[in-house]
Amino acid sequence: MQPIVSVSNLSKTYTNGHQALKNVSLDIAPGEILALLGPNGAGKTTLISIICGIVNASAGSVSVDGHDIVTGYRVTRGMIGLVPQELTLGAFDTVWNTLCFSRGLFGMKPDPAYLEQLLRDLSLWSRKNSTLMSLSGGMKRRVLIGKALSHEPTVLFLDEPTAGVDVELRKAMWALVRRLRDSGVTIILTTHYIEEAEAIADRVGVINNGELLLVDDKLALMHKLGKRQLIIELEEPVSQLPEMLTNRALELSNDGGKLTYTYDPHKSDTGISALLQAISEAGLQLKDLQTTQSTLEDIFVSLVKANEPLINSSCRRKPASNALKDMGSGIRRNDES
User: Fold this and answer.
1) Which domains does the chain have, with CATH numbers?
2) pLDDT tens figures, 23-78
3) What is the pTM of this model?
4) CA atoms of 188 and 157, how far apart (whole Å)
5) How many whole angstroms separate alpha carbon 164 and alpha carbon 137?
């Protein structure tokens, strides 16, 4: 199957010398949901901006449905919708006029029936004549999705779609994304909510320092890189491990009441039986046993740490590029390459 989006050896270096992307290659299949995970400044927004045609690449190429984004800009831009992270909407326009205007910018003929259904799907039909300034933050974010879908794109980019919204609205947005995928729209989202990727993505890409560390099926990724831990609660705390257990890859909790054993569940011999026998022989009495499975967040953190030994908590969230704010206008903006 031909990918709907194909990125080949893409690099971007800004005029200040910052290399935002380094030889990124990525194929996105039609109808999938791909989540791009990465810390702030990893290159996620730069990658989206280049694919959408609002930032120029320094090297490499991108095609959408077989059309190069440079030589076939008008075609590819018409196939793409973008929902920026920032709430970039006018104050006095109505919801209905906003969508009609966005559709017209792409040269699409008026289609009131399509826009009505779109607003109904977004639970905004009852507010079609409301001014944007009167809407809540969650409604405004849904209007942004409506704008991005007004010209019937086949590829939708969502840049931090649920940033700053409450849990209930976030889950409603996830349901909407799934419905869009079921209708045939290919969706690429950036997110810093690991549970968002775990809940709705088909594949997950991890990007850091401008490099795409991996892209894999979500379940396959958790299968290959996920670990399990056996947590052993002791009847009586100990101050240190008995000597005969020191070579067993055990971690003793600070209070001395628990032992943690990390193992690969896919190996034929996990070593658990031998471990429990050794604990018994060491004279320790067990109170309780439980196992935990690595989450996607655990895998993400381990990948990023392996790629970058020190990630500062001082990294601050960067606002989306100003160019992203103007994406709905359909006007191409060139940066200095």
Assistant:
1) 5-223+310-329 (3.40.50.300), 228-293 (3.30.70)
2) 999 999 999 999 888 877 888 889 999 999 889 999 999 999 999 999 999 999 99
3) 0.68
4) 5
5) 9
